Automatic annotation (TrEMBL):
Bilayer-crossing regions: none
Record flagged with keyword Cell cycle: no
Keywords carried by this UniProt record: Hydrolase
Species this chain originates from: Nocardioides zeae
Gene Ontology molecular function: hydrolase activity, acting on carbon-nitrogen (but not peptide) bonds, in linear amides
Name of the protein in question: Amidohydrolase
Entry-linked PANTHER family: CARBON-NITROGEN FAMILY, PUTATIVE (AFU_ORTHOLOGUE AFUA_5G02350)-RELATED, NITRILASE C965.09-RELATED
A Pfam cross-reference name: CN_hydrolase
Domain CN hydrolase: 4-262
InterPro entries: Aliph_Amidase/BUP, C-N_Hydrolase, C-N_Hydrolase_sf
PROSITE patterns cross-referenced by the UniProt entry: CN_HYDROLASE
Amino acid sequence: MPALRIAAVAAHFGRDVQRAVAKVEGIIGDARAAGAGLLVLPDATLGGYLSDLRHPDPATLPPALAEDSWEVQRIVALAREMVVCFGYAEEVVVDRPGDPAGPELRLYNTALAVTGDGVLGRHRKVHQPAGESLVYAAGTAFEAFDTPVGRLGMLIDYDKTFPEAARTLALDGARLLACLSAWPASVTDRASRLPQDRQSRLFDLYDAARAAENQVVWVSSNQTGVMGGLRFLGQAKVVGPGGDVLARTSSKGGLALAEVDVDVEVARARRLLHHLAERSPAAYGTLGA
């Protein structure tokens, strides 16, 4: 497979879904003009993220969309030959046979990977910070899937805090990991400048660590701007399998573009020290408990 041009997005997406679709159309056009084969948009691309992590207001939640909604299918059509990852609040109807209350509606914080041919893979956020569990049901698995640009795995922001999440995807054969975020600055210890914020440092640290420990290419997108009481960090980036940042944005909107021969770079990183092959699971005790 030839070298892949990867685009990671830092951008602001709010509650107006129609405006978000129009914005995505422009970003896809820019990425296509730049030759990107993989485009990773932020978490909550369609409808924005929560406006309060501690006490989410039910009256101001992101709009719930089904996978077959016009908005989702419009992005599928726009993607054409490109692999596009994006996030949205997914509404799922769960049948409950025999329950007098009838079917249950669940809302998930979901990422989709699509081309013009349809949905390639999906991920429902597993790890939930603070009040997010009051709004969203939690996903239950991390699974890689095949795409035209190689085997891919996805995570959603807080998932990357947990090494087991990215490791599971790498062990499932993913050499490209896309982490879609709506990652804000600290809500308890605000810094006057975003680069000095504790969450800003952690965001960058996790990106580099997850790439290096799994020896994969890591693509990190993020929201920018403000939603309610949350100020998002931006800092989208592409990270090589040695933990080196190949391209990044600032706290403002933009595309981080990098050209990577994924198979060559991953093979080079694993030539002498192959972290996945050299694990010692028997020594890890209760890690999976």
